[in-house]
Amino acid sequence: MKHAALLALVLVGGCKFSPLMNRITVGEEPFAVVVGEGPDGRTDLFAVSAGGGLVTQLTFTVPIEIGPRLTRDGGVLAFIRMRDTLATTPHEVVVMNLVSGGERSLPLPADAGQAAQVGWSDDETTLYVRTDRGVWAVPAPPAAPDARAVAVGDAAADTALTLWLGTPRFARAVRCDSAICAITARGDTARLTPTGHDPLRWGTDSVAWFDGDVLMIRSLGPGSPRRMTWSQPPKHPRDGAYAKGVKPATTP
After folding, report:
1. Ordered domains of the chain (ranges, CATH)
2. Structure confidence at residue 248 (pLDDT)
3. What pLDDT score was predicted for residue 4?
């Protein structure tokens, strides 16, 4: 029921069909969303099936979109939108329903600061927003977006805004110099790759990252990384998010 309510967010100036129609089965198929530059040179969001293939452009706006974060089944995407990269330009927190294409802006208080990162709570009823002045919790649609300040060290907020790996979570992925490392709760550190940037959780048992313009994926266990085979990717892909989808119920 919570997820059904989340998908019922109000349409605001968007299309009334899935922007991924005939490309990705939203809510069932695993896929990723990444930031990149399209043919027009503008910074937009792009989607690709977890198995690779043709990349689909999600947004076609003049403003810049960054920081995508998907709900687990991929039905809803949260991100940050801004007119330009000037320090004084307002940053807007947006949620997009990938089933309908509808969008809703989630306003923050005037003194909240500039939004820099978003992350979903475990039950996906709250979107946490890190700004340059602190962390805020905003109820997810269709609830009223009444933002509240979050205390430093709040466990739910820290979990939502940290890149945790594995199920159950056992380590967080961080950039360490030019490499990417996994750090456990005890502080043990393991290097996942000697080069790379913008790591992202890839399902329950894998991690992905960008190495230049290439998306690499590897198991958290033994094995070598594999390269995503995709066509028509954006320029400078980066800053991605993954949704595992939900297998459709089968009838006996």
Report:
1. 1-19+58-161 (2.120.10.30)
2. 66
3. 54
pLDDT at 145: 93
Cβ-defined contacts of 62-67 (< 8 Å, 24+)? 63/92, 65/35, 65/94, 66/35, 66/239, 67/35, 67/116, 67/117, 67/118, 67/239
* Residues with pLDDT less than 70, the chain: 1-16, 248-252
Handedness of CA 95, 158, 4, 51 (dihedral sign): positive
Smallest Cα–Cα separation from 140: which of 54, 77, 227, 92? 77
**What is the pTM assigned to this prediction?**
0.91
Name the region of 153 (left: φ>0; alpha: ψ -120 to 50; beta: rest). left
Contact 215, 238 (CB under 8 A): no
Using one digit for the tens of pLDDT, what is the confidence trace for 6-21?
A: 555 434 444 568 899 9
pLDDT at 252: 52
Structure confidence at residue 250 (pLDDT): 55
75-83 contact pairs (CB < 8 A, 24+) = 75/3, 75/6, 75/7, 75/26, 75/27, 75/99, 76/6, 76/7, 76/9, 76/124, 76/140, 77/33, 77/45, 77/241, 78/118, 78/120, 78/127, 79/45, 79/118, 80/115, 80/116, 80/117, 80/118
Peptide bond before residue 63 is cis, with ω within 30 degrees of 0: no
pLDDT score for 199: 98
Q: Which two tokens stand for residue 41?
A: 């040179």
